[in-house]
């Protein structure tokens, strides 16, 4: 077993003494952490989040935060027409909020400013659910499928879930590109129905090559609430594998508050 994924932790162990009392000892033990432990790099501030280069060891960087404020109040105060909407800064500022709601609003506005100053184009979304792709039932290409992002120019994906269900990432070693799975590839060739030399272009044009499936025993990692993430994207200058991720299956009646760019 490789020691790369093994960390020391401590556990309380109860030992019965001759007097009948239980003595609790703090003893070291070892656990084998999932592959994602090596794929995720944690930082403590925004500057390190945006300036730390990806490398062969990791393609996801997390600014770990425990946020204060009542984000649920903001979600409940905004009328959502349809399944997804953009929450603009002006609309945020117009909300009448409690003290805790105001704290949450300040965090949202600060994050928007930080990412915009960095050169990104952040969007704050309220989401009941995303549109499902039913054009090809055996191979949906919506965001609920594990996928990677692609760009013709160098860029990263930033996201943070403030309320509701959070996104997931899948360690690259636990994922397989769906277009390389023989039975799926054969079905795609039937769908394509053209000359062999154009098949790879067909896969790319329809985004099939961006999607992955989890291997048996895979352990997706929840991105949690409040932490701001930077994920590697497939682009011409990238030196690392793109980060495989997906949107959660939202619970009926629940709304997510998500910033993404």
Structural class: alpha+beta
Kindly estimate the percentage of residues that lie in beta strands according to DSSP. 25-35%
Quaternary organisation: single chain
Unreliably modeled segments: 1-34
* Mean pLDDT across residues: 85
Q: Count of helices? A: 7
Taking the alpha carbons of the first and last residues, their distance comes to: 39 Å
Strand order of the largest sheet: 3-4-12-7-14-6-5
Q: What is the ordering of alpha helices and beta strands?
A: EEHEHEHEHHEEEEHHEEEEE
What's the number of extended β-strand segments?
A: 14
Give me the Rg, rounded: 22 Å
In helices, the fraction of residues equals 10-25%
Instruction: Give the number of domains.
Output: 2
Biggest sheet overview:
7 strands, mixed
Write down the overall geometry.
Answer: globular
Describe this structure in words.
Helix 2 links the parallel strand 3 and strand 4. This protein has 7 helices and 14 strands. It is globular and about 60 Å long. The protein folds into 2 domains: 33 residues, no CATH class; 227 residues, no CATH class. Helix 3 crosses helix 5. The N terminus is likely disordered. With 261 residues, the protein is of the alpha+beta class. Strands 3-4-12-7-14-6-5 form a 7-stranded mixed beta sheet.
């Amino acid at each position: 077993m490789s020691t790369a994924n093994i960390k020391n932790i401590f556990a309380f162990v109860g030992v019965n003494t001759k007097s009948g009392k239980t003595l609790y000892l703090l003893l070291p033990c070892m656990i084998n952490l999932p592959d994602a432990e090596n794929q995720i790099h944690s930082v403590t501030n925004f500057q390190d989040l945006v300036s730390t280069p990806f490398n062969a060891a990791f393609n996801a960087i997390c600014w770990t935060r425990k946020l204060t404020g009542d984000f649920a109040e903001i979600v409940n105060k905004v009328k959502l027409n349809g399944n997804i909407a953009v929450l603009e800064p002006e609309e945020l500022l117009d909300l009448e909020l409690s003290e805790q709601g105001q704290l949450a609003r300040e965090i949202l506005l600060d994050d928007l400013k930080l990412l915009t100053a960095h050169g990104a184009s952040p969007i704050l979304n309220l989401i009941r659910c995303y549109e499902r792709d039913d054009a090809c039932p055996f191979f949906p290409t919506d965001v609920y499928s594990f996928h990677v992002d692609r760009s013709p120019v160098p860029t990263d994906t930033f996201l943070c879930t403030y309320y509701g269900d959070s996104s997931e990432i899948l360690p690259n070693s636990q994922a397989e590109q769906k277009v390389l799975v023989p039975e799926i590839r054969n079905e795609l060739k039937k769908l394509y129905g053209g000359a062999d030399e154009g098949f790879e272009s067909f896969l790319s044009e329809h985004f099939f090559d961006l999607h992955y499936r989890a291997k048996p025993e895979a352990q997706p990692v929840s991105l949690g609430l409040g932490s701001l993430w930077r994920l590697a994207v497939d682009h011409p200058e990238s030196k690392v594998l793109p980060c495989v991720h997906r949107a959660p299956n939202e619970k009926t009646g629940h709304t997510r508050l998500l910033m993404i760019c």
